[in-house]
């Protein structure tokens, strides 16, 4: 079957080879009762365990309940396989204010991200108390899962914002071919991958002793909705496009090299004495060697939200990256990119989120966030 196991040491949907489709949602908690929040997380976990295995959200399903009640599954995934569905939960900084007595449990690593140069963030599509990332090979299956979680949450949470994505922009396993983003470049070549066991331990998973014990085996997720100025990009020369990333467009090879996975040469100079990979090239600025060894596990998706009323495509990259500590990983990398990246002329960050994704659900008696209650 194409079902991804739901229970385990880590949540699925992080190192799981990236599926093709995304429905990401951020909720605000509306109940003021901690017990109601815990109850909801239990109900959500049970529904997630069923849906990721190809089942319906509730025991009676779309048509098996009493006719006088709304069905406990919405029905649009009836007959569809599990489609590699993963559901990954994360808790935002705002959940740890005084409402639920959780302030003392807030990990230091969940500190609000700084404002980066060029940020054009819209608060109504940023942040949130709880996020759920649904990834699947079939968009109908991903949408079904989020829709049913929102339905179950009625009266206790409300949807703050959500985002659909298609076409993964990263590979998270060496068994996957590198996909392309909407700028036409291979994306995910130098990503952290499932097979990098040692780096995953050092750079991805929170270890016991890192801070809050409830986060052990978990990871921090940064989301950034990054709009691309597609029409401007499409009028830019191939040479300039390649210099912006520091890789060629066909193979994805580092400039001056032949094959995609050849190591990047940051020292080589051209005939004019200029670095072959420019000082403001994206891969130079984002590379671990420029950031004190910091890696990210990128897991983003392309998005197109139609057009913007001015005839321009409303499109870009819904960037998602997992890491052990954003203060040492995403923040310094993004600071450097925001200041110097030659890509900035063609992109705009319009939404931002930071979520603490706890370790995996162990078994049917465990639930999302149990260690917090
Ligand atoms: C590498 C595209 C935003 C971090 C790359 C590559 C491309 C790319 C084409 C080269 C292939 C690869 O190794 O994956 C983009 C686009 C972006 C974007 C189109 C915005 C629309 C970001 C942001 C960050 C980031 C916001 C983090 C703050 C990285 C890292 C690498 C990379 C860490 C690998 C560098 C290396 O080790 O060689 N990106 N990226 N990117 N990007 Fe981005």
Automatic annotation (TrEMBL):
<dbReference type="GO" id="GO:0004601">
    <property type="term" value="F:peroxidase activity"/>
</dbReference>
<dbReference type="GO" id="GO:0046872">
    <property type="term" value="F:metal ion binding"/>
</dbReference>
<feature type="domain" description="Dyp-type peroxidase C-terminal">
    <location>
        <begin position="178"/>
        <end position="362"/>
    </location>
</feature>
<dbReference type="GO" id="GO:0030313">
    <property type="term" value="C:cell envelope"/>
</dbReference>
<dbReference type="GO" id="GO:0005829">
    <property type="term" value="C:cytosol"/>
</dbReference>
<keyword id="KW-0732">Signal</keyword>
<dbReference type="GO" id="GO:0004325">
    <property type="term" value="F:ferrochelatase activity"/>
</dbReference>
<dbReference type="InterPro" id="IPR048327">
    <property type="entry name" value="Dyp_perox_N"/>
</dbReference>
<dbReference type="GO" id="GO:0033212">
    <property type="term" value="P:iron import into cell"/>
</dbReference>
<comment type="similarity">
    <text>Belongs to the DyP-type peroxidase family.</text>
</comment>
<dbReference type="GO" id="GO:0020037">
    <property type="term" value="F:heme binding"/>
</dbReference>
<dbReference type="Pfam" id="PF20628">
    <property type="entry name" value="Dyp_perox_C"/>
</dbReference>
<dbReference type="Pfam" id="PF04261">
    <property type="entry name" value="Dyp_perox_N"/>
</dbReference>
<keyword id="KW-0408">Iron</keyword>
<protein>
    <recommendedName>
        <fullName>Deferrochelatase</fullName>
        <ecNumber>1.11.1.-</ecNumber>
    </recommendedName>
</protein>
<keyword id="KW-0575">Peroxidase</keyword>
<dbReference type="InterPro" id="IPR006313">
    <property type="entry name" value="EfeB/EfeN"/>
</dbReference>
<keyword id="KW-0479">Metal-binding</keyword>
<dbReference type="InterPro" id="IPR011008">
    <property type="entry name" value="Dimeric_a/b-barrel"/>
</dbReference>
<keyword id="KW-0349">Heme</keyword>
<comment type="function">
    <text>Involved in the recovery of exogenous heme iron. Extracts iron from heme while preserving the protoporphyrin ring intact.</text>
</comment>
<dbReference type="InterPro" id="IPR048328">
    <property type="entry name" value="Dyp_perox_C"/>
</dbReference>
<dbReference type="InterPro" id="IPR006311">
    <property type="entry name" value="TAT_signal"/>
</dbReference>
<feature type="domain" description="Dyp-type peroxidase N-terminal">
    <location>
        <begin position="11"/>
        <end position="166"/>
    </location>
</feature>
<keyword id="KW-0560">Oxidoreductase</keyword>
<keyword id="KW-0456">Lyase</keyword>
<dbReference type="InterPro" id="IPR006314">
    <property type="entry name" value="Dyp_peroxidase"/>
</dbReference>
């Amino acid at each position: 079957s194409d079902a991804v196991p739901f229970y385990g040491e880590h949540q699925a949907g992080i190192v799981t080879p990236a599926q093709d489709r995304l429905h990401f949602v951020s909720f605000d908690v509306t109940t003021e009762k901690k017990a109601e929040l815990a109850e909801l997380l239990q109900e959500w976990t049970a529904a997630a365990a069923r849906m990721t295995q190809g089942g319906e959200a509730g025991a009676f399903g779309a048509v098996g309940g009493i006719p006088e009640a709304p069905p406990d599954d919405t029905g649009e995934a009836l007959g569809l396989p599990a489609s590699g569905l993963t559901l990954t939960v994360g808790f935002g900084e705002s959940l740890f204010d005084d409402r639920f007595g959780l302030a003392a449990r807030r990990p230091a690593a969940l500190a609000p991200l700084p404002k980066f140069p060029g940020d054009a963030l819209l608060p109504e599509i940023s942040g949130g108390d709880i996020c759920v990332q649904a990834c699947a090979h079939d968009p109908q299956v991903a949408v079904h899962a989020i829709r049913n979680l929102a339905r179950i949450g009625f009266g206790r949470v409300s949807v703050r914002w959500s985002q659909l994505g298609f076409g993964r922009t990263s590979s998270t396993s060496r068994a996957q071919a590198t996909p392309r983003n909407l700028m036409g470049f291979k994306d995910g070549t130098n990503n952290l991958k499932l097979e990098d066991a040692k780096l995953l331990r050092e750079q991805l998973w929170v270890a016991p002793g890192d801070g809050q014990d409830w986060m052990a085996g978990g990871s921090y997720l940064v989301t950034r909705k990054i709009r691309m100025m597609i029409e401007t990009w499409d009028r830019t020369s191939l040479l300039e496009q390649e210099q912006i990333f520091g890789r060629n467009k066909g193979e994805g090879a580092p400039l001056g090299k032949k094959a995609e996975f050849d190591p990047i040469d940051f020292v080589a100079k051209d005939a004019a004495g200029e670095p072959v990979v420019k000082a403001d090239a994206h891969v130079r600025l984002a590379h671990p060697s420029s950031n004190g060894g910091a890696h990210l596990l990128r897991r983003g998706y392309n998005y197109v939200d139609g057009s913007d009323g001015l005839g321009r495509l409303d499109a870009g990259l819904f960037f998602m990256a997992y890491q052990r500590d954003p203060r040492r990983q995403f923040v310094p990398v993004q600071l450097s990119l925001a200041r110097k990246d030659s890509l900035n002329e063609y992109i705009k960050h319009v939404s931002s989120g930071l979520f603490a994704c706890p370790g995996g659900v162990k078994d049917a008696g465990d639930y999302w966030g149990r260690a917090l209650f």
